[in-house]
Amino acid sequence: MAAATLVNRRVAVLEDSDQRREQLCGLVKLCRGIPVPSVGRAPDLSRLPDYFAKERIELLVSDHRLYERGDYATYCGAQAVAESYRHGVGGIVLTAYEPNDADNSLRLSRRWIPALLHSKELTHESLRVALLVADREVREHQIPIERIPHRTIMTVKSIEPRGASKVVKVMMSQWDADQEVGFPLNLVPKKFQAAVKPGSLLFAEVNIEAARQEDLYFDNFELPDADILKKAKTLFGRP
Amino acid sequence: MPKSPPTTQPTSERLRFSTAVLRLLGEELNPSPDQGILELIKNSYDADAKRCTVELKGVHIKGGSIVLKDDGIGMTADEIRNGWLIVGDSMKSRSETSPSGRLLVGSKGLGRLGALRLGRKVELTTRPKSEPGVQYRMEIDWAAFEHARVVEDVELAVTREKAPLESHGTEITISQLPSPWTKGDIKRLARAILLLRDPFAEEQKFHASLKAEEFEELEALAREGYFRECEFHLVAMLDENGRASAEVRSASGKKLFTAKHADISTEKENPIYEIPSLTFEMWEFKLSGEWFSAQMKKGVLTAIKKWLDQFGGVRLYHRGVRVWPYGEEKNDWLDMNLRRAQHQELRPSTNNSLGCVRIEDARGVFQLKTDRLGIMEGRPFDELRRFTDEVLDWMARERRKDREKRKKAAEELVRKDKKDAEKRVDDAISQLPPEQRRDVEKAVAKLQSAHEAEVELKNETAQLYFTLGTVGTTAAAFAHQTKSPIEMIRTDANTLKSYLSDPQEFALFREESSVAAGRILRQADAIYSFSSVTLHLLEHEKRHPRNHPVHELIDETVKLLSPYFDARETVVECDYADESPVVWCRRAAIEAILTNLLINSLQAFEARAKEGIAGEPRKIHIQTRISGGMVAIKVQDNGPGITKLAIDEIWIGGRTTTEKGTGLGLTIVKNVVEELRGSVQAEAHGDLGGASFTINLPIR
Q: Which positions in chain B touch A96 (Cβ < 8 Å)?
């Protein structure tokens, strides 16, 4: 059973900036938790579970861009939190919220990130709430409604190059008929990628109750079958 | 004695199909009526027909009919029974050929079923070549299937008759169409039939046509063939060993660029394309009014646009027959538009080009999807895409080189013209009487200095753009870094605010609060240093040309960017020549070159870490050497090197492999260096393992 407070709970802190790490540790203390900062170099991604076990870590707070300063880590915060989720440790990602990150590296792991906190909203109170939400989802499987996925249809609007990768921009009227949302093309199984073209339809499981677009995740992509395409053609004049 | 249970002989049963299957296979697997009719035409092609005509009778209203006639080899009763009537088995193995040697193109018989189901009745009349004077007739009334439980319950009679005609061939009439056809439907069918075979191919051994004015109009338009108006004509081939070659010619046939296999295939580990031989041909048009009015062909532009509207895009012909929907409107299967968006002047789009990929594929490596819309995605298709992508990349590279060459030649010509003009002025002046000569010399000197002032003003403006570009690349690269201290101050200020209002809490966390206050001061200093970089780069004074000691400029630039190096844990080492080289330039010019190269290194380090690769401590090395009146400035790093772009491509504006890159940095470097009459070379992996750039500048 997860505790309702953070009192004396050990919270790992991954952050490549010394100053920011010091600040995060201070905030964890203000939440009455025990900060466990990873100094120097962060453990390898595959060794995180061992590190958590050794340090008796119960929760994790990680900055998203862990690779900017030096070679602190060879992965981003979203990957760290997703990995810890799979090993039963709830975590949150702290991000300065760059649109590129939201559509790309964050979206890629968003399914396994219980809470995402914008740096500009960071206070000890917002940190406390986010850590408790993460703990409830990972350890108690209490999944809030805005994290529950629903089978959703979407129209591909465009495919945009982002550095060496590509981002697919889609419109989901079930979520917001006026706002495009992006995700990396490599989130779609390879066998379907060729069919992802402007104007094409896709199905995926999406947590459409999420209020912010950066909180949306996409899972289990499918192509609509011929029957659906035919109906769409009848209704909208095009598949 | 107990009786043993009676034994029975096993019964012989059959798996049977409900008549509903006909609807499923016939209608639902057929995306459109056109595709069904195209399948019938493909059957004619497989039957060695030379001509195939489709006629629409009274289709504008309900109850019309479609009549298809060909002069192929026809079918015997046995062929009707064991081929034509078996759905899903077209009796064709993928490497089988027709009697005349054509590679078969028809599919699993599902398309034929779809076409036949377009009407309520079908009548087949066929005169087999092998049985002169004989014809077979058969009628299908689909209503009969509606009353039957399983497909096999409906009997279909094939009657043998004396043929009224000598010729062989097949005629299919699909009648009682349930709904009328619009003009748009007919136009779409006309286009589909015309494009089923490459309408621009010189040799046509099979001609399919639609008896309709819409078809005639389109065919006439296709015949217009504006190929002679193209800007580039690309022909790329892949031989049976998977080796590529290509050439690009101008409209007049002049060879512009040629490529061997190694120029095209850039995949080092797997350079050979593992697919059957093919040809990729494309014509690209320059759709600008200026281009055509310069050639006195104003009216032609509108005609070409209309022509490209109908026939533009790159289509795929497999065994001589078109595979849908490649090259259709909105089907940019080669991602040409996406790439053109990045390099408008170097890349074709689906709107300004026309082409086709022709694959014979005797072994049947490429397989069509069941609904016949496209080729199965898989290794052969991926290889095909790799080939077309790499051919288009090669063509863009050659065009860029050509553009650079022309630019250099134009600059050289201007320099020579200027020199000639100056000499002519000097000669003219020298022939004047001495008293006039002085006046003219004065006037010419004044004109020259006014001209130089004008040029200087323009150069200064150009430098301002380069500087602004550099400020932009810096801002984009370090946006997160600049934002971070502000966010930290906000967090600490919030913490202090909440604790100051609660004396008990404040007492408990007094030490934390004091640390937070100290952090605010440190972050304020960081913001100050980051903002100073931009202000320093923009100093007006730096855009005036002077004699500048190179080493001093390098030191100043490194110092200016030191907050970023510190924040990224990067060490910069300098190794200077013994002499102190001096360059006539604007300070801003050298700053732009170095800043962009140094930012490039920092982004490369970040990209490497992001890809999950741990590296050595980050290091940038700057070296200067003097030789032959030039100073060579070499900037190297121990990052991952240039890996995702060809060396030639790194200078193209907008080309970037990092998510925060603008793709402008190296373009600015090249432009500024050229303006200083210098040169720049790049190596993908230098002495330190990462990228290496060498700038050569003339010294004073």
A: 480, 483-484, 487
* A14 domain-assigned: yes
Whether residue A81 is found in the same domain as residue A177: no
Task: Please give, rounded to a whole number of angstroms, the shortest distance from the CA of A92 to a CA of chain B.
Answer: 17
Enclosing domain of residue A122: 10-143
Instruction: Tell me the C-alpha distance between B661 and B649, whole Å.
Output: 15
pLDDT digits (tens, 9 = 90+) for B85-132: 887 665 455 557 888 888 888 765 667 787 888 889 999 999 999 999
Closest CA to A234 of B22, B64, B28: B28
pLDDT digits (tens, 9 = 90+) for B136-157: 999 999 989 888 888 888 888 9
Q: Which residue of B has its CA nearest to A76?
A: B610
User: Whole-angstrom Cα distance, residue B181 to residue B184?
Assistant: 8
User: Does the residue A4 lie in any domain?
Assistant: no
Residues A95 and A153 both lie in one domain: no
Ramachandran area for residue B663 (φ above 0: left; ψ -120 to 50: alpha; else beta): left
Residue of B nearest to A77 (CA): B610
Question: Is A231 inside a domain boundary?
Answer: yes
> Does residue A233 have a pLDDT over 70?
no
In chain A, the number of structural domains is 2
Q: Judge if A95 and A195 occupy the same domain.
A: no
Residue whose entry in the numeric block shows the structure tokens 């007919």: B186
Q: Which of B299, B329, B296, B304 is nearest to B230 (CA)?
A: B304
A159 contacts B491? CB cut-off 8 A = no
Residue ranges of domains in chain B, CATH in brackets: 20-219 (3.30.565.10), 225-403 (no CATH), 435-698 (3.30.565.10)
Q: Give the ipTM.
A: 0.78
Strands across the sheet containing A115-118: A34-37, A10-14, A59-63, A90-95, A115-118
Do A130 and A64 share a structural domain?
yes
Do residues B687 and B637 lie in contact, with contact meaning Cβ atoms separated by under 8 Å? Answer: no
The model's pLDDT over B230-259, given as tens digits with 9 standing for 90+, comes to 899 999 999 999 999 999 999 888 999 999
Query: B512, A75: Cβ pair inside 8 Å?
Result: no
Query: What average pLDDT score do residues B211-215 get?
Result: 83
Q: pTM surpassing 0.80? A: no
Domain presence at residue A54: yes
Domain boundary (A143, A175, A200) is at: A143
The residue from A93, A122, A143 where one domain ends is A143
Which chain A positions have a beta carbon within 8 Å of B492's beta carbon? 23
Mutate to test the interface with A, among B29, B491, B494, B501 (most CBs of A within 10 A): B491
Q: Does residue A61 sit in helix, strand or coil?
A: strand
* In a shared domain, residues A73 and A186: no
- Could you give the CA distance from residue B464 to residue B591 in angstroms, rounded to a whole number? 12
Q: CB B169: neighbour CB atoms within 10 A?
A: 23
